[in-house]
Amino acid sequence: MDPAVPSGPTLLGFDVIWVATILSAVATFAVLLAIYAATTVKDPMARRVKALNERREQLKAGIVASTNKRRKLSNRNEAADRVRSILGSFKMLQDDQIKKTQQRLMQAGIRTKDLAFFIIAARFVAPLVLGTIAVLVIYVFNFFPTWSFLR
Predict the structure, then answer these.
(1) Of 1, 90, 115, 129, whose CA is between 20 and 30 Å from 146?
(2) Is the pLDDT confidence value at 129 over 90?
(3) How far apart are CA 112 and CA 48, in angstroms?
(4) For residues 18 and 9, what is the distance between their CA atoms, to the nearest angstrom?
């Protein structure tokens, strides 16, 4: 008997038993993956509680450690202020647009309100950058020579 010729019933040219075997293996893998995911759930607050306890111990001991987070936060605020001033100079900031963007960020789980200014700036800069790249690729580098009739 030739191994290339299916021995059992076929569906669209595939051996039904072989397809059922593959589907059973995929289902078994999915069940094992679900069991693994359910049994290895980590407490999301454990690391935060540990950090708070360490900070509490430092404060009790009188040790006040400077954290880099404050420095990053001030840098982020400075960057947000720069972006806000640039957008303001182009008269692109509208209160309803800022509020809508901040609301969408909050719905996405991002609580940083300054990020809205970066998103508004990206909406302004992205088409310019992508358009420039497209013009360079199509006209300067002649990447699509068969598009001559579309140019």
Answers:
(1) 129
(2) yes
(3) 19
(4) 10
Cα angle at 24 between 38 and 40, to 5 degrees? Answer: 10
Q: How far is CA 66 from CA 50, 74, 119, 125, in A?
A: 18, 14, 31, 36
**Whether pLDDT at 123 is above 80:** yes
**Residue type at 149 in one-letter notation:** F
Is residue 8 within 8 A of residue 2, CB to CB? The reply is no
Distance CA 147, CA 107 (A): 43
How far apart are the C-alpha atoms of 146 and 131, rounded to whole Å?
Answer: 20
pTM, 2 dp: 0.44
Q: What stretches of 62-151 show up as alpha helix (H) in DSSP?
A: 68-89, 95-107, 115-135
User: Which residue in 23, 26, 24, 20 sits closest to 8, CA to CA?
Assistant: 20
Please give the structure tokens belonging to residue 38.
């359910």
First to last CA, the chain: 60
